[in-house]
Automatic annotation (TrEMBL):
<keyword id="KW-0456">Lyase</keyword>
<dbReference type="Pfam" id="PF24621">
    <property type="entry name" value="DHQS_C"/>
</dbReference>
<protein>
    <recommendedName>
        <fullName>2-epi-5-epi-valiolone synthase</fullName>
    </recommendedName>
</protein>
<dbReference type="InterPro" id="IPR050071">
    <property type="entry name" value="Dehydroquinate_synthase"/>
</dbReference>
<dbReference type="InterPro" id="IPR030960">
    <property type="entry name" value="DHQS/DOIS_N"/>
</dbReference>
<keyword id="KW-0547">Nucleotide-binding</keyword>
<dbReference type="GO" id="GO:0017000">
    <property type="term" value="P:antibiotic biosynthetic process"/>
</dbReference>
<keyword id="KW-0520">NAD</keyword>
<dbReference type="GO" id="GO:0046872">
    <property type="term" value="F:metal ion binding"/>
</dbReference>
<feature type="domain" description="3-dehydroquinate synthase N-terminal">
    <location>
        <begin position="164"/>
        <end position="275"/>
    </location>
</feature>
<keyword id="KW-0479">Metal-binding</keyword>
<dbReference type="GO" id="GO:0003856">
    <property type="term" value="F:3-dehydroquinate synthase activity"/>
</dbReference>
<dbReference type="InterPro" id="IPR056179">
    <property type="entry name" value="DHQS_C"/>
</dbReference>
<dbReference type="GO" id="GO:0000166">
    <property type="term" value="F:nucleotide binding"/>
</dbReference>
<dbReference type="InterPro" id="IPR035872">
    <property type="entry name" value="EEVS-like"/>
</dbReference>
<feature type="domain" description="3-dehydroquinate synthase C-terminal">
    <location>
        <begin position="277"/>
        <end position="418"/>
    </location>
</feature>
<dbReference type="Pfam" id="PF01761">
    <property type="entry name" value="DHQ_synthase"/>
</dbReference>
Length: 474
């Protein structure tokens, strides 16, 4: 049976999460503080099914039984006792690029998330039918629903496919609850029957949130069907819905067990939505990869015209712009996300284009798509970078030309200077008192800046409006 042809990345992240604590992490100063009090470190050892505390940081030697990576720090002072729990949590998920995902001879959709070979063999040799709950974007269902059900029938799966109008306007808790009601009625085994989401970023985000709420965390699988979700929403761990008129205000950082990426879905998305996805790709190019920028600069129109399907004809993935660009976009994205899955580090290059755009996107909804709002934000920031002397006029010109070539908007009348100020003010509040502005410092290079003054922002704004308000370079 054919498996995924190209497992792209296996990703593991370790996160320190204090579960019962007044100390968010045991950094040096906190440790010193604890030491000044009376403090005992306990390791945890499992003997005959029971976990026991054992005094000491490293008790592995001479101990029979399983030693947990978790620690309990007990400190006593005159005011009482505090137990600080430090428990590393590991997320492992796979991102797999595959072809012919809905071909019944390809078992990626059903089994591609299982890494344990013994478990895989046991499932393959069992006659018990698999059970899957699948949520599909309604538009995607109309296009691919019969292929999905044919696939499930051919594989003798017990299934329920739920098509839903997962639009940005419907990206709400109500939609997540609707999914949960249906999941509950259908009944799934939380450990072995992952929920599958097939659709664009909206569908993947809502289903991800629903799954992470169901029984506190039910595994889910992402199958992106837009370019934007292929290179962005399916690669990371974020789930969410809009709330109180704010983008993704409710959500979780729970990675899917797997994301299965098949570029053939992109052939049916409207041209405007390809441009939309190209904006997020351009973001990674500007921040991290000059080669990707140059590829978008020269092959942008071709990618738009061919709808990322060229590989099907060219066959050689190494020179095919669609293969190369998606691969680099995914790899650069994973590089930034893997070490910072829960966004504890607030200095994030992937935030480029996302400082002003959330406010703008919600203000004009549904006029601008996510990537379009991101591009308008990036275009303004390029002017800021130029005003700060980080980019030359020529580099600025090349970037704006590339954006226009990707058929992306570079300016919007609702992106007022007041909106810029409000967005950056909000950012200051939610980013530990620093604005943490990612700005290009060349083509494919970037740094985070905290010292951009109001005058620079305003001069850049005026120039941006002056040069780009007609929607093209003057
Ligand atoms: N979780 C994350 O890390 C993350 C990252 C980036 C974006 N997002 C979220 O993703 C959303 C945007 O995603 P999107 O651009 O995919 O939008 P979307 O989900 O709204 O899909 C865009 C449109 O394309 C249609 N569609 C989807 N697949 C199709 C196909 N194969 N053929 C024809 N039509 C198709 C949909 O019905 C919809 O009308 C935003 O809500 C954003 O917040 C999340
Ligand atoms: Zn985005």
């Amino acid at each position: 049976m054919e498996r995924a042809e190209e497992p792209l990345t296996v990703y593991t992240s370790e996160i320190r999460q204090p579960a019962v604590t007044c100390h968010p992490s045991l950094e040096n100063s906190t440790m010193e503080n604890l030491n000044r009090q009376k403090e005992t470190v306990f390791s945890l050892v499992q003997v005959k099914g029971t976990w026991k505390r054992k005094v000491g940081q490293n008790v592995k030697q001479g101990i029979k039984g399983r030693v947990s990576a978790a620690k309990i720090y007990e400190s006593t002072s005159s005011s009482g006792t505090t137990w600080t729990v430090v428990t590393p949590i590991t997320f492992t998920y796979t991102v797999t690029q595959t072809k012919n995902l809905l071909d019944p001879s390809n078992d990626t959709l059903l089994l591609g998330h299982i890494r344990d070979t013994q478990q895989l063999e046991a499932i393959r040799s069992s006659t018990r039918p698999l059970k899957r709950f699948i949520v599909m974007d309604e538009v995607v269902y109309n296009l691919y629903g019969s292929q999905v059900t044919d696939y499930l029938e051919a594989r003798h799966v017990l299934y329920r496919v739920l098509p839903l109008p997962t639009t940005e306007e419907n990206k709400s808790m109500e939609m997540a609850l609707k999914i949960l009601e249906e999941v509950h009625q259908f009944g799934i085994d939380r450990r072995t029957e992952p929920i599958i989401a097939i659709g664009g970023g909206v569908c993947l985000d809502i289903v991800g949130l629903a799954a992470s709420l169901y029984r506190r965390r039910t595994p889910y699988i992402r199958v992106p069907t837009t370019l934007l979700s292929y290179i962005d929403a399916s690669v990371g761990a974020k789930t969410g819905v809009n709330f109180a008129n704010c983008k993704n205000k409710l959500g979780t950082y729970i990675a899917p067990v797997a994301a299965f990426l098949d570029r053939s879905f992109i052939q049916t998305i409207p041209r405007r939505h390809i441009s939309n996805g190209l904006a997020e790709m351009l973001k990674m190019a500007l921040m991290k990869h000059r080669g990707l920028f140059e590829l978008l600069e020269t092959q942008g129109q071709f990618l738009l015209d061919s709808k990322f399907q060229s590989g099907m004809v060219l066959e050689d993935d190494r020179i095919d712009p669609a293969s190369v660009s998606t691969r680099v976009a995914i790899e650069t994205m994973l590089e930034e996300l893997a070490p910072n899955l829960w966004e504890d580090d607030l200095d994030r290059l992937v935030d480029f284009g996302h400082l002003i755009s959330p406010e703008l996107e919600m203000k004009v909804l549904p006029a601008l798509l996510h990537g379009e709002a991101v591009n308008i934000d990036m275009a303004y920031m390029v002017y800021v970078a130029c005003e700060m002397g980080l980019l030359t006029e020529q580099e600025k010109f090349r970037i704006v030309c590339c954006m226009l070539g990707l058929e992306l908007p570079v300016w919007h009348q609702d992106c007022t200077f007041a909106l810029v100020q409000k967005s950056l003010c909000d950012r200051l509040q939610h980013s530990g008192g620093l604005v943490r502005m990612p700005l290009p410092t060349g083509l494919g290079r970037a740094e985070i800046f905290n010292d951009t003054d109001e005058g620079t922002l305003f001069r850049a704004y005026e120039k941006w409006c002056d040069e780009l308000s007609t929607g093209s370079l003057r």
